[in-house]
């Protein structure tokens, strides 16, 4: 087997080596004393430059557990049938960290081989048996979905490929099929190499990795990145625009298999607020919400008509999840916004510098 390595600075590696040498009781000591509060949300956070952690919190973003990370995290997968969750390193990342969100303890650190990297997202199968992770080949950005056997200590048992370059987020549908947001971009580190020829797609895979369907947008400079579904058959996609910097184009679309992708509404001057980038996206029965940390805002659309209803300022708007019909939105300055079905908003300050995405514990 090829030896595996993690790309962390010497300073961070030394710090991480000391942390992982702690006993479980010491790691648990990093948790908040608010153990009576129910764990409902998980997200990455930034404590200082080069110092990152994953936070398990209540619905009101009260910290319950905090675990240190070896490098900056991105997306989180939560098991539907166990107490495990996985934090994936930000692309091009070298680790995926499995942890127990009730105990607040790390269970396993999965390291990428030298010639591979993680793209920052993954998801458990509906039965919790498999963990799927978006991965890439460093030399080519060839897209890979890694398959890990949860019951066998997360050993890698397979790979799905041949669906495109630069996959980012993967989600699982109710019928057990996988949906992959394929960015279509070959990168050297984080630097794009093929913007003139990039080929993004929304790719549907069977549970065995067969390519079932691919949907595309008319503008090939819209890199399909972040995904969600509405609990039924509708997939939501958030894009990063890689075209002309003065063009302001729709960045959110919805799709059902067998149909064309449909973009959400908004005028160019409204899409300019999102600064060419959508991060997290979620839907209730009536609305769709998408965040833009680069634009420091989030938008809300009517799900039935696809009309843009409002854009709201939120510095470094980051994660969004749906809990009991309400949206919960995080930000990198510690603000949290709870939005009811009639779009009434409650704001509070969490004291946490939230980073990238949130996931809900169901």
UniProtKB/TrEMBL annotation:
InterPro entries to which the protein is assigned, alphabetical: Quino_amine_DH_bsu, UCP028101, WD40/YVTN_repeat-like_dom_sf
Checking SUPFAM superfamilies in the record gives:
YVTN repeat-like/Quinoprotein amine dehydrogenase
Q: Which Pfam families match?
A: DUF1513 (PF07433)
Which top-rank group of organisms is this from?
Bacteria
Q: Any idea what this protein is called?
A: DUF1513 domain-containing protein
The organism is: Vibrio thalassae
Ranked from the top, the taxonomy reads:
Bacteria, Pseudomonadati, Pseudomonadota, Gammaproteobacteria, Vibrionales
């Amino acid at each position: 087997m090829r030896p595996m390595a993690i790309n962390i600075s010497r300073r961070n590696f030394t710090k991480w080596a000391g942390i992982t040498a702690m006993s479980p009781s010491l790691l648990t000591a990093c948790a908040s004393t608010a153990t009576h509060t129910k764990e409902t949300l998980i997200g990455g956070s930034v404590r200082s430059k080069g110092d990152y952690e994953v936070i398990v919190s209540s619905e009101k973003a009260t910290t319950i557990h905090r675990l240190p990370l070896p490098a900056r995290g991105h997306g989180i997968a939560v098991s539907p049938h166990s107490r495990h969750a996985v934090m994936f390193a930000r692309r091009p990342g070298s680790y995926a960290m499995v942890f127990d969100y009730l105990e607040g303890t790390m269970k396993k650190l999965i390291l990428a081989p030298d010639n591979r990297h993680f793209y920052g997202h993954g998801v458990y199968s509906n039965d919790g048996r498999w963990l799927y992770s978006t991965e890439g080949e460093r030399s080519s950005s060839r897209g890979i979905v890694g398959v890990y056997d949860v019951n066998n200590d997360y050993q890698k048992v397979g790979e799905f490929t041949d669906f495109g370059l630069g996959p980012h987020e993967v989600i699982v549908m109710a019928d057990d099929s996988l949906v992959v947001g394929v960015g279509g971009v070959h990168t050297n580190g984080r630097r794009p190499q093929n913007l003139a020829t990039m080929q993004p797609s929304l790719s549907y895979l069977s549970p065995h990795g067969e390519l079932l369907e691919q949907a595309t947008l008319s503008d090939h400079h819209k890199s399909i990145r972040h995904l969600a579904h509405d609990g039924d058959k509708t997939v939501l996609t958030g894009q990063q625009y890689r075209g002309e910097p003065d063009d302001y184009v729709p960045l959110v679309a919805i799709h059902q298999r067998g149909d064309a992708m449909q973009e959400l509404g908004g005028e160019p001057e409204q899409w300019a607020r999102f600064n060419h980038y959508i991060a997290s996206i979620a839907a209730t029965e009536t609305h769709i919400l998408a965040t833009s940390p680069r634009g420091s805002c989030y938008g809300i659309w009517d799900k039935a008509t696809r009309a843009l209803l409002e854009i709201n300022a939120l510095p470094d708007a980051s994660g969004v999840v749906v809990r009991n019909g309400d949206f919960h939105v995080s930000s990198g300055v510690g603000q949290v916004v709870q939005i009811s079905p009639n779009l009434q908003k409650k704001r509070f300050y969490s004291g946490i510098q939230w980073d990238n995405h949130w996931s809900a514990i169901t």
